Amino acid sequence: MLKRLPLVVFVLCAVIVTAQSATPVALLEAKGIGNGLIRFRVNAPAAKQISVMVDTMAAANAKPLTRDAQGVWSGDLGPLESDVYAAGLIVDGSFRSVGYVIASQPMPEAWEPTRVPHGEIHQHWYDSKTLGLLRSAWVYTPPDYSKSTTTYPILYLLHGSGGLESSWVTDGFANVILDNLIAKGTVKPMVVVMPFGHTEASQGAGNVPTFTGRDNAAFQRELVDELMPMVERAYRVERRPDRRAIAGFSMGGNQARFIGLTMPETFRWVGTFSGSMPNTRGGFSREVAESMFEGDFLTDSASTNASVKLLWMAVGDQEAGMLGQHRIMTDVLRNHGIRFTFVTTPGGHTWHVWRRNLRDFLPLLFQK
In DSSP terms, which residues pair with 195 in a beta bridge? Predict the structure, then answer.
């Protein structure tokens, strides 16, 4: 079953914010106005105090808005670094979510909607034989896909724990990043498949996932035996391993690492963004890191380096525990002569880091 979905709209205007207290509030404006500023206008004549904040701020640092004679509260927040922020209002002590807003600088970032050709997002529902459940995957096709006969390379892009197959679009703005970088010529046009990473039925009418299904072996079987053949029947995608990539963040980074590095006959490009590590009672050690790699991956570095075109790992510089784990793992890889790239990105375990990781990872794919 195929459904085309509209691209995400980011400017939130004239939206009634869901009330969490008795004070009536109508959001009139919440949008970036350039130079890192976000403008807010709120109609709330009965409110005594309104402050605004974004997800990188503590509530104690929320900025108060100013009330006019008609009861409209207004003010500008910033300047902020170019990014997508989850914004909120604090109305008489009660927090109310606004949604995403974009703070822009003179040079637009990759996740900012611009006037470039746009790709399409499709949703596929399928009955998973592996799991015996109804599941779905989202698929991005690049601009002009429907007008061409080109066969495209493919990226399987995985979300983190508690996420959905839609997360890379609704929170990560992956389609916007792809559109912009393809238009700049820094990224090769590609098809991107975003599956549901938890081994449960997808969210839909009558079903709310528990997000506790984490059978990575079953997820791998379904991905390789069911989802990939379905995608290859439905889309013009290349089937050579050097034209397939797999990447993900957090839980999805762990899945991408395991699947990608144990299946070089299927994937040659692997990316992990804040990729989680195995939980062990004794802590993460060199021995644990070595046990993560199967067969002769570590011992036959010449073969590994010939088959893996890119192993790219990134971690936020505020993710102290995960940063330490990755340093142990990269020491293991380095000592065995395995070629890899490891980068740190300013920030914690958040979308602010993962959007930047995707922006930096995509231009490296399918270039060799």
Answer: 137
| Stated pTM of the model | 0.92
Over residues 19-76, the pLDDT tens digits come to: 455 689 999 999 999 999 999 999 999 999 999 999 999 999 999 999 999 999 999 9
Please return the burial class of 85, using the count of CB atoms within 10 Å of its CB with bins 0-12, 13-18 and 19+: buried
Query: Can you name the CATH fold of 12-103?
Result: Immunoglobulin-like (2.60.40)
User: Which amino acid is located at 112 in the chain?
Assistant: E
Amino acid at 241: P
- From 10-24, 99-113, 333-347, the region with the lowest mean pLDDT: 10-24
User: Residue 55: what residue type?
Assistant: D
Place of tokens 């990447």: 247
Helix, strand or coil, per DSSP, at residue 70: coil
Could you read off the pLDDT of 250-283 as tens digits, one per residue? Answer: 999 999 999 999 999 999 999 999 999 987 777 8
Distance between CA atoms of 179 and 114, rounded to whole angstroms? 9
* Domain 120-364, second-level architecture: 3-Layer(aba) Sandwich (3.40)
Distance of alpha carbon 314 from alpha carbon 357, whole angstroms: 7
Cα–Cα distance for residue pair 213/162, rounded to 1 Å:
10
Can you state the percent helix, strand and coil of the chain, rounding each to 5?
A: 25, 30, 45
- Which residues, 6 or more positions from 359, have their beta carbon under 8 angstroms from its beta carbon? 109, 110, 111, 177, 181
Pull the structure tokens for residue 172.
């990560």
Residue 32's contacts (CB-CB under 8 Å, 6 or more residues apart) are 38, 39, 101, 102, 103, 104
Geometric angle at alpha carbon 108, from 323 and 140, rounded to 5°: 75
Residues 250, 271: contact at Cβ < 8 Å? no
* Backbone angles phi and psi of 135, in degrees to 5: -135, 170
